[in-house]
Amino acid sequence: MKPIILDVDTGIDDALAISYAVNSPELELLGLTTCFGNVTVEEATRNTLLVLEHLDSAVPVIPGATKPLFVSRVKANATHIHGEDGIGNTLTNLPTRKALSQYAPQFIIDQVRSKPHQVTIITVAAMTNLALAIMQAPDIVNLVDNVIVMGGAVKRAGNVTPHAEANIYADPEAADYVFASGIPITLVGLDVTMETLLPKKDVQAWRSKGTELGTLMADMTEFYIDAYEDFYPGIGGCGLHDPLAVGVAICPDFVTTEPLYVRVDLDGFHSLGRTIGDLRSKPAHEPNMQVCLKVDTERFLEHFLSRVV
Ligand code: BDR
Ligand code: CA
Predict the structure, then answer these.
(1) For the chain, domain boundaries
(2) pLDDT tens column, 224-250
(3) Which residues make up the environment of ion ligand 2, defined by Cβ < 5 Å?
(4) Which residues are in coiled coils (predicted)?
């Protein structure tokens, strides 16, 4: 089993990623750390606990950053995509379990140090928690097994601006700090996640199971697919951004990667948060990450659907 920390801003596709991860025997979930992003960190923590309750999972939840590292430039929520509550307006009750009283960056440091060279961190939110962890404990850079980042768009358009993807845009300084730190990274960006569209017919199959989990996931995901349809008319489904990052942790060969040197634009008026890969034949720097550029959509979708609900 691969020890995993999953860093979330739950969020509908985060909820799907959590369910997929909990139901995957290859992964040992050490904890779910939460961050601001789709919703506030308090809401993300609440949503994470609720999803885990539906899955009968006792995985610890550890709250993290409430705001970006240095500059709050953007309104940190995506209620138009994820609903007022972040989970497609399905919220009816509060979780019975509480989050740990630890702080996410410290949890990351402790777990990585206690299992040297074993832990994979999957970030599917702004990268603030991981950046804070590295600032406080730079030794973890050489102690993690890998960091799988859902974020960025290297050879593709952004989704919150023409160039920027939401998780990077939410805290560009944090993302760039992590990218420059030397930590091993696999970047699962819009280059591949926008190739993983989930159509409504698959969601209807969850509903027809008649289970509480199936109904909740179907209600949330239908909201998400409708939001995608408004945003990208005719698209016919929603991008499985966060689930693909979990999928890559389970089966790295769902994707094809290219080693590249990638940094984040921190100055651009029109391109703030853009993930810029050095695509020249003779780049000026050694690659700092593996960038996913192709995905075996059919195989990933089949695997995801066999586990998520
Ligand atoms: C990412 O942004 C968030 O809204 C989603 O949960 C996902 O992590 C996609 O750009
Ligand atoms: Ca997310």
Answers:
(1) 2-307
(2) 999 999 999 999 999 999 999 999 999
(3) 9, 11, 14, 124-125, 242
(4) none
